Amino acid sequence: AASIPRKPAEHLTVVSLYGGLPHSIVINPYEIVTTIARRVQAEQTFYIAAPMFAPTPETCRLLKSQALFKAVYARALQVDVALIGLGELAPDATNVQLGAICHDDVESLERAGAVGEVFGTFVDAEGVPVLHPRNECFMGPDLEEVRAIPHSIAAAGGVKKTGIIRAALSGGFIDVLVTDEETATRLLAQHTEAQA
After folding, report:
1. Are strands 44-46 and 151-155 parallel, antiparallel or unpaired?
2. To pair with 41 at 20 to 30 A between CA atoms, which of 10, 59, 106, 146?
């Protein structure tokens, strides 16, 4: 977000697409949205004032039923461009380090076939959401709603993220990928092998 040039944009609204993390400055959705909004001098900024994951599916449904959340979700689904996150599934993953999920979640998600998380939804190697209670706790629009956004951009890199990047591409969830050369080379090699 800090790399976005300081350039005023007319009639621009910045909307957080999902809840935040318990702590973190650099990658917390609240901070990212605020930084982008300031750099482009957005006319309006909207936040989802909730954690990234509710503690239970029931709590998630209750919070999402509130008028405040419904209004922000409606705005979120009207955006033209979405910047989405991709998270690997590992004991040292960012989501674990920042408290969004715990080590028990990692183990049970792996047993369910998940390779990582695309925009808060845990998916398998083909980009199909896995059956797991954590997928019913995400405080944001679901993947099908995000797929309807005209342009989605993911910035993800590092060899550890190769699996989740492939899953996101296979699932058709991203239009533009920003990554490093080593990861791009590995993804292309895997794609070539799969085609052979």
Report:
1. unpaired
2. 146
Quote the CA–CA distance of 100 and 51 in Å, as a whole number.
8
Q: Which amino acid is at 107?
A: E
pLDDT confidence of residue 62: 94
- The ranges of the chain with pLDDT < 70 are 1-3, 20-30
Residue indicated by tokens 């070539």: 192
Tokens encoding 23: 């702590």
Look at residue 52 in the predicted model and tell me its pLDDT: 85
Q: What is the pLDDT of residue 20?
A: 67
**∠ at Cα 137 (1, 108), nearest 5°?**
100
64 within 8 A of 85, measured Cβ to Cβ = no
pLDDT of residue 173: 93
User: What's the pTM value of the predicted model, to 2 decimals?
Assistant: 0.85
Alpha-carbon torsion (111, 115, 117, 122), positive or negative: negative
How far is the C-alpha of 104 from the C-alpha of 32, rounded, in Å?
28
Residue pair 27/60 in contact (Cβ under 8 Å)? The answer is no
Pairwise CA distance, residues 105 & 37, whole Å: 33
Going by their DSSP bridges, the two strands 121-123 and 13-15 should be labelled as: unpaired
CA angle in degrees (0–180, nearest 5) for 153-154-160? 165
Pairing between β-strand 121-123 and β-strand 44-46 as defined by DSSP bridges: unpaired
